[in-house]
Amino acid sequence: MVGIGALIFGILLLSWLGGEPAGPQQVGVADLLASRTSPSARFGSRELEVAGWYAAITTECNGDTGGADPTVSWLQRECPVRVLLPQQPAGSVSAAQLLRDGLRLAAPNGEPFPPPTALGSGTAGLEQLLFTGHFDDPAASKCIPDREQTCRNTFVVSGYTGLIR
Predict the structure, then answer these.
(1) Domain-located, residue 104
(2) Out of 25, 49, 58, 66, which could bridge 77 as a Cys pair, Cβ 3.0 to 4.6 Å?
(3) Taking Cα atoms as reference points, which of 55, 37, 139, 144 lies closest to residue 94?
């Protein structure tokens, strides 16, 4: 019995000394939006997983195509509006409301996003999603000066999965 107890103690001690588990840190979108520190200052370009409700508007937005520099247009483009919200959106909301209440998302190829659905239905309304990515993308330094901070605090997405309920 003493041998088994010592073995279990040894395993627990080794796991404690091993530090934090490998993999990206998981953060809720509500935590990111409530913090007084900007996401880029708080996390730098470290890979994270951010959980929240996904919403996108492609038809209502009138934003530009991201300026003349095609290498950064994907990051500073204002349309489509893609955000993660702390709560499921109810009914119809405007692009301005989504940007005010949510965390802005972008991706270099525009592909790692769920297909657009009406807010409150489909992928956007059935479950929270877990997006993997980072803030403070190197391309942010090429954004026009008026948008550089917005670019730095945009969550650059590399993928997503359904959230464990």
Answers:
(1) yes
(2) 66
(3) 55
